[in-house]
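User: I'm new to structure prediction. If I give you an amino acid sequence, what do you actually give back? Let's try with this one:
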Amino acid sequence: MNADSLATWWAPAIGAFCTQHRLLLDLVVEDQDVGLKRMRAGEVAACLCGSERPVAGARSQLLGAMRYRALASPSFIARHFPHGVSPANLARSAALVYGPDDLLQHRYLALLGVQDGFEHHLCPSSEGFIRMIEAGMGWGLAPELQVRDQLRSGTLLELLPERCIDVPLYWHHWRNGGQLLTQLTEHLAQHSADWLVPLSEE
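Assistant: Good question. You get back a string of structure tokens that encode the predicted 3D arrangement of the chain. For your 202 residues, that looks like this:
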């Protein structure tokens, strides 16, 4: 599963289920764009990722989407965007990227019309990612679920409030994974909407 889900909605969504069924989890963290490789290798019973197409012998189910917003600290904005934020000056300022498989910032800039590369830090920690943005080290796309307190307090500010990006999350599981996996799948389908937003059809 992706680190941002683990840092935000996953535990409250499945905590009661795991307690009720005495279920112990062995979680593997991968970027949402590459998580299916573990299922292809037969290493995991289920996978939460951004790809809709299941591997052979598995099913996929859309749970919803995580909404990401482009954020920076007030000090970073004052230094890099004194005359306002534009796609061009976003691309010229340091960004935060989770890891080499994380293409979310690339896709976001492409949506703004920026096709070239950009300078960035690599930070393979969901919590550390937010801390580095707060410290003014760069701008980044952060899950809305994870930064509500910072947005309320003003320690983080949105760069382009009208330009969020939604990342779909699909739950993949083996067709013959057993009764407990089926029950977990049904539980996730029922409760994930408490945290995830509907995926736009655009």
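You can read the tokens as a compact description of the fold. Here is one thing that stands out. The beta strands are 46-49, 58-72, 95-97, 120-122, 140-143, 157-158, 165-174.
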